[in-house]
Design brief:
Chain lengths: 334, 409
């Protein structure tokens, strides 16, 4: 399966198991979603379980919170993460705090799916990586898969979770892993081991990172598309790096990170999102606090620049092989 | 065309300011009993005159008249009167408790008791209200324990919400009262989602949401009406038009050119405009909308036309922006006085019983405050500090466990 099919499969498996699950969003019903993630679901489960909504992100999330309070488990879709901002008030002031402020009388067991990330010439409003906005909000969980196998297992875990989960899908790798070389032919998930996805139920617990490459020289922390870019840079450079796919940013698998950095003594953080106050800053702070006496070099951050996401200058903006390679050289210098 | 015509910026301004004589002569108030009552199954297109009128049942002589008279038995009327009275007594007592430093904050609902109490009594145990911070009467009508209200207001060790919430932002699921929050309007759409979930489950539970007229300007109002209309959600969406949003009069919220009930028309929903100080009219309108919702006919927008008789909150001094005696000139009177007059007019109540009831309620409220004070008032008693970390998630993650250790160390 590619990642779209894996997400579709997760929704199908979960909807068959639990009639409290409803899927809603712009174009998700009859049409099956602009990325096809919900294709066939309305036909299989009916219009009242998979339905199109008016174009109002704040409305979609607000209504989903109310459905959750009733006892349903809504899986709303926001067509692009770039358009999640109208729903910020609902996510920050309502979904994230409902359990806390009502002492558990009402909960918001939503899973908000949204395609995110760049590398597709999406320009300013089809490329953003706003995860740092959500990891900053107490009461929200943030999940970002990097393979079809993980996407399905993590989405199932997110849907089953009783807390609101922001599930960002890196759309650059919907169809295949991206090695960072935009000028070479695209790869396909069919040749990748993580493209093997069981058709039935399985889950990958939230809060567990995946060490996708073991190594001794440096720890690389990444998620989403950047996991594949990092793996490829490391292979091309012949560096014995340990690459950790965080998979969930909140809750974060701090143990795996700590163990790795204590072993390697070096830590590099890679994300597409803009640098200032991005999630990389939190990761750097945590590593510094917990692994200070093991660090042999300053922590490196390779990220998007502090600009809006540009269109024609995409590959100068994207933290690709050249920039990651330079950072690797720098961090391994001593 | 006048030669001096030119565009100019219009800033709505209330008729009366501090020092002026209150003037409500501009209001076009329908007479009690004058407005027709459409069948609950009627098409919205057949009732587009209704949102511009004012549904009233109680006339100046205290008689219930016209097609909207819900014909309630006297014991229900007395129950309503009792719940409204205890709301007012409680408000007065706790407002004073704020002045005495026993709580950090309080908001009264004086003058708006009917629009909270009547729907609470009218709707069933499985229906859910999505309140604003000014519908305490809903809880009073369902006999929520007074002492627990006080615990919450004092944020003490027995606060049902563990000291996490500002005073009066209650949550009471078992009483059909959804979790309140300080940000306005953001729960209006929750009611629609809740109602959609009920319909999805094939259940006949309805959601009733309140929003102030000032907050209708928020996007949440538009979104809720859009969803309610699109999916025919069994929701009753109520605008409490009490004329004031803190210091801004209703004209600033868009009430100068049209009524808030009339906003329903653009969404294809029925709009009812109701005398919010008339317990019987409020009851009848909610009953009409509930019947329509349960019959699968979808949502109704109701404007409760009322007046915020007290200040916005303990932090507000209304004499700085409106005439001090404006409430006394409100032409729709006081909801408690009007229901009392009706009960007396039909021979089901008298001044003596009223005085006894008032004394009883005053004693109950004093006793509740006193009992809660024994646990502690603001700052004298707090929930365990560990409670600060509970409920963020279903289970604490390592960050919260570590942070809890910091304060417990």
């Amino acid at each position: 399966m590619n990642m779209i099919q894996a997400i579709n499969s997760a929704l199908e498996v979960m909807m068959a198991r639990d009639d409290a699950i409803v899927v809603m969003g712009e174009d998700v019903g009859y049409f099956g979603g602009v990325f096809r993630a919900t294709a066939g679901l309305q036909k299989k489960f009916g219009k009242t379980r998979v339905f199109d909504t008016p174009i109002t992100e704040c409305g979609i999330i607000g209504v989903a919170v109310g459905m959750g309070a009733y006892g349903l488990r809504p899986v709303p879709e926001i067509q692009f993460a770039d358009y999640i901002y109208p729903a910020l008030d609902q996510l920050v002031s309502e979904a994230a705090r409902l359990r806390y402020r009502s002492d558990g009388e009402f909960i918001a067991p939503l899973t908000v799916r949204s395609p995110f990330g760049g590398g597709i010439f999406g320009g300013q409003t089809h490329s953003q990586s706003p995860e740092g906005i959500f990891t900053h909000v107490s009461g929200l969980k943030t999940v970002i898969p990097s393979t079809p196998y993980d996407a399905k297992g993590l989405l199932i875990a997110a849907i089953e979770d009783n807390d609101p989960v922001i599930f960002f899908e890196p759309k650059r790798i919907y169809n295949g892993p991206f090695n960072g070389h935009w000028d070479r032919p695209a790869e396909n998930w069919s040749k990748h081991p993580a493209g093997e996805v069981p058709s039935g139920y399985y889950r990958i617990p939230l809060g567990k990172a995946n060490v996708v490459r073991e190594g001794e020289a440096v720890t690389i922390l990444a998620y989403g598309t950047m996991v594949h870019v990092c793996l490829n840079v490391v292979a091309e450079a012949g560096v014995d790096a340990e690459v950790i796919d965080l998979r969930t940013l909140v809750p974060l698998d701090i143990e795996t990170i700590e163990q790795s950095v204590r072993k390697t003594g070096r830590c590099m953080i890679v994300h597409e999102a803009t640098r200032t106050s991005g999630y990389g800053a939190e990761l750097a702070a945590l590593v510094q606090e917990r692994c200070f006496y093991h660090l042999e070099a300053p922590i490196e951050r390779v990220t998007g620049f502090d600009t809006p996401y540009p269109h024609s200058l995409e590959w100068a903006y994207f933290p690709g092989p050249v920039r990651i390679g330079m950072a690797l050289k720098k961090i391994l210098k001593d | 065309m006048p030669t001096d015509y030119k565009p100019r910026l219009h800033i709505p301004t209330p008729v009366s300011r501090p020092g002026d004589t209150p003037d409500f002569s501009r209001l076009d108030l329908s007479a009690a009993g004058a407005i027709r009552r459409p069948e609950t199954c009627a098409a919205e297109a057949q009732m587009r005159d209704i949102p511009f009128a004012l549904i009233r049942v109680l006339d100046d002589a205290g008689q219930a008249v016209g097609p909207w008279n819900p014909q309630l038995p006297p014991e229900v009327l007395r129950r309503g009167l009792r719940a409204m009275l205890v709301t007012r007594v409680f408000d007065d007592r706790l407002f004073r408790a704020h002045r005495q430093g026993k709580t950090s904050f309080y908001m009264k609902s004086t003058g708006e008791e009917a629009l909270a109490v009547a729907p609470s009594l009218m709707l069933g145990r499985h229906d859910m209200s999505f309140p604003t911070y000014r519908v305490l009467g809903w809880l009073m009508a369902r006999d929520y324990p007074l002492v627990d209200l006080c615990h919450q207001i004092f944020s003490n060790a027995r606060d049902p919400l563990k000291g996490r919430q500002l005073p009066i932002l209650y949550s009471a699921r078992d009483y059909g009262f959804y979790s309140l929050s300080g940000n306005v309007g953001s729960r209006f759409g929750h009611a629609v989602g809740w109602a959609m979930a009920s319909a999805y489950r094939g259940e006949d539970h309805v959601a009733l949401a309140y929003i102030g007229e000032g907050t209708t300007a928020e996007g949440d109002f538009h979104e809720a009406l859009t969803f309610a209309s699109v999916y025919r959600a069994p929701a009753i969406l109520c605008v409490t038009n009490n004329q004031w949003a803190i210091s801004s009069f209703a004209g600033i919220a868009g009430g100068e050119e049209t009524t808030f009930a009339a906003k329903a028309i653009g969404y294809g929903l029925p709009g009812l405009r109701v005398d919010g100080n008339d317990f019987l009219a409020v009851w009848a309108a909610v009953a009409w909308a509930a019947e329509r919702a349960r019959a699968g006919q979808g949502a109704t927008l109701i404007e409760f036309f009322t007046y915020r008789a007290a200040g916005h909150s303990t932090s507000d001094d209304p004499t700085r922006y409106r005439p001090a005696d404006e409430a006394a000139h409100w032409p729709l009177g006081d909801p408690v006085d009007r229901l009392k007059a009706h009960l007396i007019a039909i021979g089901e109540w008298d001044e003596e019983r009223h005085a006894v009831l008032l004394a009883d309620l005053d004693r109950d409220v004093r006793a509740a405050v006193k009992e809660a004070e024994q646990t502690g008032t603001l700052g004298n008693s707090k929930p365990p500090v560990a409670e600060m970390f509970e409920g963020v998630f279903k289970e604490l993650d390592w960050r919260l466990i570590e942070q809890r250790r910091e304060v417990e160390a």
